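Prompt: Have a read of the protein record below and flag anything odd:
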Amino acid sequence: MHGRWHLVLALVSSLLFVSGALCIKRAGTLGAGIRWTNLVTNWATAVLFAPLWCLGGPGQPPSSWWQPVLGAGLLVGGQAVAFLAFHRGDVSVATPVLGIKTVLVAAFTTLVLAQQVSWRLWVAAALSSLAVGLLNWTESSGAARIGRTVGAALGAAGCFALFDVLVQKWAPSWGTGRLLPLLSLAAALLSWGWLPRFWTGEHAVPKAAWPWLLAGGGLMAVQNLVLITTLAVFGEATAVNIVYASRGLWSVVAVWAVGHWFGNPEQHLGRRVLVWRLAGAGLMVLAIALVV
């Protein structure tokens, strides 16, 4: 571990993600909608990423400005579907399924960057499919809800995976200090555009939900900053991604151990269900390790 203490930052980021997801789940239970969750998270992210402008970069002419806009659309869309999974499903299912993003990144890389598919990718795909099956297993009548959670999380993982590949493709020509601040600002503006009819009335955020919403959005923004800064400064994307993928395991453990602090009912699903979810999360991490 000598000289690799920066991997602790990836672990911190994974724990921040799980904490943020639990807060967002609680905010949704108290009446905070997905639109507001996206708005708060994306504006917090834009504020935190703004100082990266000091890193500089060549930028691009107006003919290429569609690139950060497209990236922002994928980010906003992915977050919206992920928050849908948190709000209406189970955190201990959605978070491990989001881990399949790394496998999808490898697949999109072969399509977008024309790189060859390795046997590891196919094995990882099989393991991740088995993991999704374990995460989808339930003893209760909530199978339809679990299925929707898995579907929403897979959709979010797809958006985030394509986002990562496109950022990897565009960042060298833009410069990190130009692409990321512009992209995060565009995401914040897109989120704002969703809200004209939702400031007041039945779609307003209840007072009791605001602390949880602000905490969840802030934690998500901070974990983005910690993870991306770790990659930018120290590199070692492989090791960092493996450590970060542990968020799937932490989500199951957190729901089991401290979910009641957040008013989360998943710990009452039964020991067998949570054990199967823990096994599914472990398989997902193994699949990711094969790819990265």
Notes: The two ends are 19 Å apart (CA to CA). DSSP finds twelve helices and no strands in the chain.
